Amino acid sequence: MMFDQLVTTIQSLNTEDAFRARLDNSQWKAFSAYLSQQQVRSGELIIKQGNIDRQAYFLGQGTLQVYIKGAVPNSRIAILRAGSIVGEAGLFSSGGRMANVEAMTPCLVWVLQLPRFEEMAQRMPAIGLEVLRAAAGVMASRMRANLTNRLPLA
After folding, report:
1. What percentage of the chain carries pLDDT values higher than 70?
2. Which domains, ranges and CATH numbers included, belong to the chain?
3. Is it the case that residue 107 has pLDDT exceeding 70?
């Protein structure tokens, strides 16, 4: 999958928690240099509840489920489709992950690791600020939804 296909997928996602970065084509292209592709098998965890890691994922292809282990029964929070971002809290906090994220189908994700994000933000602050703004918007939308549904935040 080419990165321009991911951008089209991100921009066409019509959900409350969509990543709505206001970047032009040249900015998206510059941003792409800081991401790496990863193939994920069905059933594989890309984020494990409680782990500490500092990366976010953009879902290019496939379907992911987000759930909290230990709730009775395990509490599914969301099903994410292509164009979604997940793990965005890793860009803001060094705390443990709040939920598991598992591939329901084979997936292609684009990974943004915190050190690469920080490097990009230093070199291209306007892009870094816009990525942070859009990721924070996703977090706020998801927090509102979780509070409305009375789901735990941690």
Report:
1. 93
2. 3-148 (2.60.120.10)
3. yes
